[in-house]
Each structure stands twice: as structure tokens, then as C-alpha cells.
Design a protein that fits this description.
- By secondary structure, the chain is of the alpha+beta class.
- It has two domains: 150 residues, no CATH class; 105 residues, Tetratricopeptide repeat domain (Serine Threonine Protein Phosphatase 5, Tetratricopeptide repeat), CATH 1.25.40.
- 35% of the residues lie in helices and 30% in strands.
- A six-stranded antiparallel sheet has the order 1-2-3-6-7-8, with no helix packed on it. It has a four-stranded antiparallel sheet with strand order 5-4-10-9, with no helix packed on it.
- A hairpin with a 2-residue loop joins strand 4 and strand 5.
Length: 281
């Protein structure tokens, strides 16, 4: 019994001294990004330049690159999207790429158990292959970076930066058709004031049908109600877009007054801009 206890203590002691924590050369990162109605998850490891030649050196031209370090970069979409106009169905994928001197081919690949880069592609597992010409940056990006930028209701750009190179790919999250269908369905049932507001703002932002936007914002925020500054700002913007400058100024000035009365700095600043613009018509 004593021998077993002694062995157990030695084993525990060994484990306690073998768990040295140290920095990781290519730390992993995760991005969760909402674009339109789609959730996009991105996981990748981030190597650094460390005075090395990157493209055409550490990352050879014409060879498959895992687009990061360690495991292949993982991307997932909660709904169907288009990448550079190529349809990609919702799901989980690996990202690989093949660089050349002037461009970066990006490959959306069926998720597998592969670790690191591939020696060859299985063509049946390629879901999309898109290309971006390299942009020469005026600075050096030390750590490999993938990011989402230019985010709108309808899409975003997927940007890859490393060393002095940048590649940009366009994501279309196919929002417009879905939103029009959702709006028509929701407003035909038992819509709330918030439903009307969302519908009006979407049609206003996307320049779809400003007459409907006016109708819906009036249903959301009735003139007979004690409207808040932010509600009046929405009405001013939509009426301005519809060309009714007199009503737009009325709503903007009323909202500006309300914002000042309750001393809401953001509201004051936002409505002051609208009032000044409308006074210049």
C-alpha cells in the first residue's frame, strides 16, 4: 500500500513539473462576425514575419498554403453566401490558398481531418476557388491577419494581410431577397411598431421603395404620439429621402429640441447635422 502511495506521489510530482506554459509561436484567434443575416465564424493561427521573406519564401509560390499556421484556417457560414460571386452553401469549411507573384487564389474546401497544408487537392472537395490580385501595402504587416471590413446589410470584404501584401475578396450574404420576403410576411400578419420601423429603415437604407418606407415609418411612429428624438430623426431622414423637405425639417427640429431638453449628447450631435443639412436645401 505504501509503495503504491509513493508511486502515485512521484507520478503527480512529475506531472506538476512537466506542465510548463510558454508562448505559442503562431497563436490561434477566433472571430465571430454578423454580416446581414449571416453569422460567420473564422478560426486561424497567426504566424509572424520575424524578418523572413514571406511570399515566395516561407510561403512558396505555386504551392498549397494552409492560409495561416498549424491547422488549416476554418470558416463557417450560417446561411448560403457568395464569395466573389461563387455560391457557397452554409456549413463549415477549410480555407487553403495558392500564392503567385501577383495574386492569391483562395480555395474554400470541404472540412477534413487534415493537419497543415495539403500536398494536392481532391477536386471533389473544392467548393469554390476565387482569386484576388495582390495589393502592395505602403507598410509591413508583421503578424498574419484575416479580417472582415466594409460591413453592410448585404455583405463585407474578407481581407488577408501579411508582410507588404493584401488580398481582398467580396462576400455577398444575399440579404435583399430574404429581407423583402421577411418584411412582406411579417407585415401581412400582426406587425408591431418595431416591425414597421425595421421595414422602413431597411427600405430607406437600401433605396428600395421610399414611398413604402414613409408609410411604414408613419405607422411605427405616429405624429399623435409623444415621439422621442431618435424616432423623430428616423422620420426626418426618411422624409428627406422622399423629397418632403418641409416635413423633414419639422421632424428634425423637433427631435433636436427634444435631444437638448434631455441633454442627450449623441442625439444632439446627430440631429444637429440633419438640421444643418436640411436648412441648406
Amino acid at each position: 500500500m505504501k509503495n503504491k502511495l509513493a508511486l502515485t506521489l512521484i507520478f503527480i510530482s512529475y506531472l506538476s513539473y512537466s506542465q510548463l506554459l510558454s508562448p505559442v509561436a503562431s497563436p490561434k484567434t477566433k472571430i465571430i462576425q454578423k454580416v446581414g443575416l449571416v453569422d460567420i465564424n473564422l478560426e486561424y493561427s497567426r504566424p509572424s514575419k520575424k524578418n523572413r521573406k514571406i511570399f515566395g519564401g516561407l510561403v512558396p509560390y505555386g504551392k498549397i498554403w494552409r492560409t495561416g499556421a498549424n491547422n488549416p484556417t476554418l470558416i463557417s457560414f450560417s446561411e448560403n453566401i457568395k464569395l466573389n460571386n461563387k455560391l457557397i452553401e452554409k456549413g463549415d469549411y477549410h480555407i487553403y490558398s495558392v500564392p503567385s507573384e501577383s495574386k492569391l487564389d483562395l480555395i474554400i474546401y470541404e472540412k477534413t481531418d487534415a493537419w497543415g497544408s495539403l500536398s494536392d487537392f481532391d477536386e471533389s472537395l473544392i467548393k469554390a476557388r476565387v482569386v484576388s490580385n495582390f495589393i502592395d501595402l505602403p507598410l509591413t504587416v508583421e503578424t498574419f491577419t484575416i479580417a472582415f471590413n466594409d460591413i453592410s446589410n448585404n455583405g463585407a470584404s474578407l481581407i488577408i494581410n501579411w508582410d507588404n501584401k493584401q488580398a481582398v475578396y467580396m462576400i455577398d450574404v444575399l440579404t435583399k431577397g430574404k429581407m423583402i420576403e421577411n418584411i412582406n410576411k411579417t407585415l401581412s400578419e400582426n406587425p408591431s411598431a418595431n416591425d414597421y420601423r425595421k421595414a422602413a429603415v431597411y427600405y430607406y437604407e437600401e433605396k428600395i421603395d421610399i414611398a413604402k418606407a414613409v408609410k411604414w415609418i408613419d405607422s411605427a411612429f405616429k405624429d399623435t404620439d409623444n415621439l422621442k428624438y431618435w424616432q423623430l430623426r428616423y422620420k426626418a431622414l426618411i422624409y428627406e429621402k422622399a423629397g418632403n423637405i418641409i416635413k423633414a425639417k419639422e421632424y428634425a427640429e423637433k427631435g433636436f429640441k427634444n435631444a437638448k431638453e434631455i441633454n442627450t449628447i449623441d442625439g444632439i450631435n446627430a440631429l444637429e447635422i440633419v438640421v444643418e443639412r436640411l436648412n441648406n436645401y
